[in-house]
Design brief:
The chain has 201 residues and is α+β, with helices and mostly antiparallel strands. The chain has one domain: Protein Transport Mog1p, Chain A, CATH 3.40.1000.10. It is 18% helix and 38% strand. It has a 6-stranded antiparallel sheet with strand order 7-8-12-11-10-9, sandwiched between helices. The chain has a 3-stranded antiparallel sheet with strand order 4-5-13. Strands 1-2 form a two-stranded antiparallel ribbon. Strand 1 and strand 2 form a beta hairpin. The chain is globular, with a radius of gyration of 16 Å.
């Protein structure tokens, strides 16, 4: 299931050219690991609370758990996900990483409208939120791309880049915006046991 989803949605599930590696490498015959109630990544040191009725799925071990992907109830295919990864492209700020999303959507005949561009928070980390309306050439329904991105600068260790993202038809966005905001508000930095020595700084 996850491989099929990611093959279709991978162009959208990227920030700054960093794909959700942990969600897109499902082996033949492997089963997704789906969680309810909460999700945490020991490798990338964060956790979220999941609203009632939602499952968040990721690839099984030994793949690293970067994040998880939620299939939201609805007639079409809105997606909401969380991701943690190393700052492989050496961005200086969350703003730099987020702006690359806009560049990735630029194409002849595509109209981009910035609906929101504002400071945000992921736990105690400074973050940036950007909401884009994307209308492809030739008509069809516009899509919404919503991202909250934070960069954890860690002295002596690799920086970590965190994302909460939504992709879906414009008509469905209002239905899921509150869910998106609840997940952002629930996001916490730290390992699964709460050890302060492992918290991103």
């Amino acid at each position: 299931m996850m491989r099929k989803l990611m093959g279709r949605w991978l162009p959208h599930l990227m920030v700054a050219g960093v794909a959700l590696c942990g969600l897109g490498t499902l082996s033949e015959g492997a089963e997704d690991v789906c969680r309810q109630g909460s999700f945490s990544s020991e490798s990338y040191l964060y956790s979220i609370a999941l609203p009632e009725g939602l499952s968040c799925c990721h690839d099984p071990a030994p793949n690293p758990v970067h994040g998880c992907l939620m299939t939201l109830p609805g007639k079409r295919e809105s997606r909401l996900w969380v991701d943690g990864s190393y700052n492989a492209l050496d961005f200086n700020s969350a703003e730099d990483a987020l702006r690359s999303l806009v560049g990735g959507e630029l194409a002849a005949g595509t109209t981009l409208t910035v609906l929101r561009h504002a400071p945000a928070k992921l736990g105690g980390l400074e973050a940036v939120r950007m909401t884009l309306r994307i209308q492809k050439q030739g008509g069809g329904e516009a899509t919404i791309e919503d991202r909250v991105v934070a960069l954890a600068i860690r002295e002596g260790r690799e920086d970590l880049l965190y994302t909460v993202g939504f992709t879906g038809p414009e008509a469905e966005y209002s239905q899921y915006e509150k869910t998106f905001s609840r997940i952002v508000a629930s996001w916490k930095a730290g390992d699964a046991t709460g050890g302060p020595e492992n918290h991103p700084r």
